[in-house]
Specification:
The chain is built from eleven helices and 17 strands. The chain has helices spanning 2-9, 26-29, 44-53, 77-84, 100-104, 121-124, 147-153, 189-213, 245-254, 323-327, 332-335, and strands at residues 17-18, 23-24, 33-38, 55-60, 65-66, 73-74, 89-90, 109-113, 131-135, 158-165, 175-182, 261-265, 268-279, 291-294, 299-303, 306-315, 321-322. The strands form four sheets. The chain has a seven-stranded mixed β-sheet.
Length: 345
């Protein structure tokens, strides 16, 4: 009877118990069945954590894509990780029309992170412990597909991760837990993506036991404080040098390195990836977009209220390079005084 009593007490616990001559690991006996839905690199640490701690029975991600004219197939990073761990992968074109395989997996919980499609009601209502999302903002700020980009572009001083219950309305479900991360002047998109991805895995690991044990406090989102961070489009990527130097700086670092902010030099698209900002409120000529100065490693573009010092770029048809390497291959006399445009002439 003692063993049975202990097993009843441990029914919802993950830690092993010592019953004398041997130990029963209830974390393995009671491992919850998880279906994970995610696609990009951002979701990989979350899936890694789930594989280590739970029984991931199915991974759902977006279909493979062709990268270029050569027909090179891009396999989603989440798929690569799943296959490497012998986990079945499901890649429906439209999950709203093709979700039976997820139901057949009989998950105790569905966890999503940057999946890229709207989850149908049938899946939201199926699992015993709900459908949980790992979102890259401090909701209700920045609902949508590009919250990390927009936090940088809009000059936020902090952002963070939200663990939430999913609902039919995009990113509108009840909040379970949140953790903040600071944004400094040195923060760029690539590093923030990586830091927030690791934070998401950490926070989810801490939160899941409470979800399973039913001890979470559901917090309704304040609809009066909702903002959106929709997917970046081509128009969003164009640099307008007539804007403040702060705005230009934030746009460039908020799109580094994917998809990259761009302008036009000699009718060729120039993507600018890494810059420094130099504030100067005493500008007289206000030649916004003009390259006004060169040094050995960079060139300076005039903006409203200062200059952007360009350190890394890619000219159309060329690979990304340091600006010092770019300068070795151009006519410097022609470059100085050039005015960069926000469209082709």
């Amino acid at each position: 009877m003692a063993i049975k009593d202990n097993m009843r007490k441990q029914d919802k616990l993950d830690s092993p118990i010592d019953i004398g001559d041997f130990t029963i690991d209830f974390g393995n006996i009671n491992k919850k069945k998880v279906v994970f839905m995610g696609t990009p690199q951002f979701a990989v640490p979350i899936l890694e954590m789930l594989i280590e701690n739970y029984d991931v029975v199915l991974v759902v991600c977006q279909p493979d894509k062709e990268k270029d004219r050569k027909g090179k197939i891009i396999i989603p990073p989440v798929k690569q990780l799943a296959l490497g761990n012998n986990i079945e992968v499901f890649q429906p074109l439209k999950i709203k029309d093709d979700y039976k395989k997820v139901l057949d997996a009989n998950p105790d919980i569905i966890i999503t992170c940057a999946y890229g499609q709207i989850i149908p009601k049938e899946l939201l209502e199926y699992p015993k412990y709900g459908c949980i999302n790992v979102h890259g903002s401090l909701l209700p700020k920045y609902r949508g597909g590009a919250p990390i980009h927009w936090a940088l572009i809009n000059g936020e001083k902090e952002t963070g991760i939200t663990i939430m219950y999913m609902s039919e309305k995009m990113d509108a479900g009840d909040i379970i837990s949140q953790e903040t991360i600071k944004i400094t002047n040195d923060t760029i998109l690539d590093t923030l993506f990586n830091d927030m991805s690791l934070l998401g895995a950490k926070l989810l690991k801490e939160t899941l036991p409470n979800i399973i044990n039913g001890t979470v406090n559901r917090i309704k989102q304040d609809e009066n404080k909702v903002t959106f961070g929709f997917n970046i489009n081509k128009q969003d990527e164009i640099i307008d040098f007539s804007k403040s130097v702060e705005d230009v700086f934030n746009l460039i670092r908020g799109l580094n390195s994917n998809p990259g902010a761009y302008t036009y030099y000699n009718n060729k698209r120039m993507k600018i990836y890494r810059v420094e900002k130099i504030e100067d409120n005493n500008l007289k000529d206000k030649s916004y977009g003009k390259i006004v100065k060169l040094d050995k490693e960079s060139f300076y573009i005039e903006c409203n209220g200062g200059y952007i010092r360009v350190l890394e770029l890619a000219l159309e048809g060329k690979k990304k390079c340091l600006t010092k390497d770019f300068l070795n291959g151009v006519n410097k006399k022609e470059l100085i005084g050039s005015v960069l445009k926000n469209e082709k002439e």
